[in-house]
Amino acid sequence: MMAAGIRSPVAEEKTSRSQTEAAHRRLKYASLAVLVVQNASLILSIRYVRTLPGDRFFTTSAVVMAEILKLLTCVVIILLQKRLNVKDTVYFLVDSIVFQYKDTLKLAVPSLIYTLQNNLQYVAISNLPAATFQVTYQLKILTTALFSVMMLRKTLSRVQWVSLLLLFAGVAIVQVDQERKKEEQASSVEGSSQNYTVGLLAVVVSCLSSGFAGVYFEKILKGSSASVWMRNVQLGIFGTVLGMLGLWWNDGDAVAESGFLFGYTGAVWCVIFNQAFGGLLVAVVVKYADNILKGFATSFSIVVSTVVSVYLLGFHVDLLFTLGAGLVIGAVYMYSLPKAAASSSVAAASSSVSLASPRTEGDAEMEAFLPKAQGGVASPAAAVLATD
């Protein structure tokens, strides 16, 4: 007989497994909570710093600074993976970036698009209410889905197609409501530096670029064994160079006269850190949380942005906006449902005995591998739900 004080290996293994699952569960909900705060706070903070009176910082310099911070963060993570061995880390970076230059050059295209997208985000939020931007920006789900079908030959479930229609309808209702408000206030409001048309155009172009870059980046990752952190280093290098070119083109003379950090305050630095590390946060969320909970987090962040906008930014919510935002939140949740779960729901509703095909292990690994886009992007069913 086994001594009473000695535990069997099987019992120890079960205890260890249960402790690991409990730790992952705590990390899952903690990361989801952080994601909600990050999604809502980024939009609100950009809106806040861009509408403050006084000297305005250069958005092009903020984009460059965010790329630099993201690049340094990924290098530090790789250094930690190499057990703080600087020699091995340098050799790994040089080999991955320089000697495999053909592989590195593939990241030039999405990096150019991300740089454009980050600049457009500042333009859009500077000209639109935070809640309106947050709702309209969910159109990136639609653009990513369309590019996935065209470029990756992916198929969407009936639930996902319905969710895309609801998404389009919800955004359309919100935009009609905002256009009506703009016309009503046009005669009574003094001249403003905000331009609704410019903001809306910036959102649409940003959604298109986000969809294309996300699918393009996924296509690259599927044929590569490079880690997500290495890919973000490559993206960061191109992003920094392209961002500097954009800064020189748009604000070169002004930056030369006033300085790179002109207009930077504590609030501006908070926005930059938020934008730089927000994309890296999604990699953790997708790894430890499923798409359903991630959809809830994104939807809840829209609600948080709207509520805070009402109390702090003077945003007025009416019936049309509530209806449109509700359709968008529902569409985000429906689209984020895994295909197996969505197909099973449709089958149950129609009393069908056929079951949806289960997701493969490769698909699950890919969703856990891909990050989001201000710093990286996720697969169409996951990363488009985050707010890069």
UniProtKB/TrEMBL annotation:
It is a multi-pass membrane protein. Pfam families: Nuc_sug_transp (PF04142). GO terms for molecular function: pyrimidine nucleotide-sugar transmembrane transporter activity. Keywords: Membrane, Sugar transport, Transmembrane, Transmembrane helix, Transport. It is found in: Golgi apparatus membrane. Its main location: Golgi. One of its GO terms (cellular component) is Golgi membrane. The keyword Transferase does not apply. Coiled coil: none annotated. The chain crosses the membrane at residues 27-46, 58-80, 159-176, 196-217, 229-249, 261-286, 293-313, 319-337. PANTHER family: NUCLEOTIDE-SUGAR TRANSMEMBRANE TRANSPORTER. Belongs to the nucleotide-sugar transporter family. SLC35A subfamily. This is Solute carrier family 35 member 2. The gene is slc35a2.
